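User: Before I run my own analysis I want an independent prediction to cross-check against. Here's the chain; please return only the structure tokens and, at the end, one sentence I can use as a sanity check.
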Amino acid sequence: MKGRFFFALAALCCAMPVAAQAGHPGQQQLVQEVAKDTGKDPATLNALLDGAKKQQSILDAISRPAEAKPWSDYRQIFLTPARIEAGIEFYREHQALLDKIGTQYGVAPQYIVAILGVETFYGRNTGKYKVLDALVTLGLYYPPRAAFFRDQLKTLLELPDNRLAGPLDSLTGSYAGAQGWGQFMPGSIRDYAVDEDGDGRIDLQNSLPDILASVANYFAKHGWVTGGPVAARAQPDVAAKPLSVKDSTPQWTVEQLEAWGYAPLQRLDPGASSSLQTFQAANGPEYWFTFQNFYVITRYNRSPMYAMAVNQLAQAIVDGVNDQESAAR
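Assistant: Structure tokens:
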């Protein structure tokens, strides 16, 4: 009798539905914060987050960023003939719009184009990951940078619908949750994206005016100097002073760097504020004076190699455009 009782009890337990886990770790607190800040419905927020999945491929991707490569390898990713030619074609096709936006924001158009070239090959590869999956995975399951990505996830949930290219659960982007041709994170969409075409929506996936103007506005708001230099080669002498450079913040004048043994290979303003970057090229180290506009590019991506790739792609594009225009005269 006793045995039959325990067998029946076990069978009953197996037949009862098991309560589902309450979403992702930290989801309840996140939903409470977003609902408090925005008045959005917690049930709707929970449904969005419940539909997001932790993706191991995202955790794998963030562990092997391209910026871990040496400059000689990194440069080859972005300074290819195909990317340069596509950039020249893109610039020429949209030159009137680019020149208008460049003048409006004080940013050289070739740098707007180069950002799109480096980030998404001019909109051809904007990313295959669901943005919600990416930010949930990195914000709630990736301790090394959880604080940053959780903040981006919270911002995404708080953005008004008219600042997104479509329904939130349909958005796709990079493994880090960046969206659109310019790969804007949610915080950048909130702070720098603009409705250039005036349709009442910011669409960084389908509206070229919004895309270009948002990149230009990002640069302008971070201190782009209209007509200012970006980078120039330097040649150290044998007694050049070794320098420890933590980031790309301009901190010495060109004149000071010259006094320490770094000679510019082109004419520069001796009083211009600059930094010195060293890149490991195939034939040995390269030394570069870098300026405020180089620093601004590193606000888009903190890697000096990224900023140099954008700079060199921009120069290759504008040189190609100028050559074609000269040949057509």
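Sanity check: Confidence is low (pLDDT under 50) at residues 1-21.
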